[in-house]
Design goal:
With 223 residues, the protein is α+β, with helices and mostly antiparallel strands. The protein contains 6 helices and 10 strands, in the order αααααβββαβββββββ. 28% of the residues lie in helices and 26% in strands. The longest helix has 23 residues.
């Protein structure tokens, strides 16, 4: 496991552990869902450790549990909700409102929404500014084994100039895809890593507008 993997897993494990203790101590999932306004089905995924909660959702849960947001994220014992002194180990990265498809593409909602705590050393080592990083999850299996379905993906939205063979999140009309790209003259070509299911390189269709959202820089590890 790389250092990036370790930091990500440590962040997740500590947060989920504190979240469970806080929710159980404040009356359980049902009570906190009713008080916080976070749907019980969503809260259940957080408690099971299968979904990383956004910063906005964590703030609601923290308030309902009577603990500080800083406690849930970093383990601080401070009883007050105070995000001014976030530890150096965490950066706040905006989420994207869609799941980038590593398959046939998904509808783009095209809006940035809530934020997620993310290991700051990873962002720093990649030379990214947190304000230019976006976090989303891949969907589909066309980029397997490089990127698996559900993998967290960190995208640099300031890097939109296509370099042959790098992985990008891009849109074709109202659909978003995650593929390796390269240019040949005026043509833009895309290729999947799962050659068994997607053996051929394809030309990116230009019937609808094409927009490069950014280059994938991390998916549990640097790329």
């Amino acid at each position: 496991m790389s250092r990036s993997d370790e930091l990500w897993e440590m962040t997740r494990a500590g947060l989920f552990d504190r979240l469970k203790r806080a929710v159980h101590g404040a009356g359980g999932n049902g009570a906190i869902s009713a008080t916080s306004g976070v749907p019980i089905s969503t809260l259940n995924t957080y408690m099971a450790g299968t979904t990383m909660p956004s910063l906005a959702k964590l703030a609601k849960i923290a308030k309902a549990c009577g603990v500080s947001l800083d406690y849930l994220v970093s383990g601080s014992a401070s009883p007050e909700v105070d995000t001014k002194n976030w530890p150096d180990k965490l950066a706040i990265v905006q989420n994207l409102e869609f799941r980038a498809s590593a398959g046939d593409g998904l509808l783009v909602l095209d809006q940035e929404t809530e934020a997620t705590p993310f290991p700051k050393p990873v962002v720093d080592r990649l030379g990214l500014r947190a304000s230019k990083a976006r976090l989303l999850r891949a969907a589909g299996n066309s980029m397997w084994p490089t990127i698996e379905d559900g993998d967290p993906v960190l995208v640099d939205i300031s890097d939109t100039d296509v370099i042959d063979g790098r992985i990008y999140v891009f849109t074709i009309g109202d659909h978003v895809l995650l593929k390796r790209l390269r240019r040949r003259g005026r043509k833009l070509l895309m290729r999947a890593d799962n050659r068994e299911l997607y053996p051929e390189e394809e030309e990116v269709p230009t019937v609808e507008p094409v927009r490069i959202i950014g280059r994938v820089r991390w998916v549990g590890r640097s790329l």
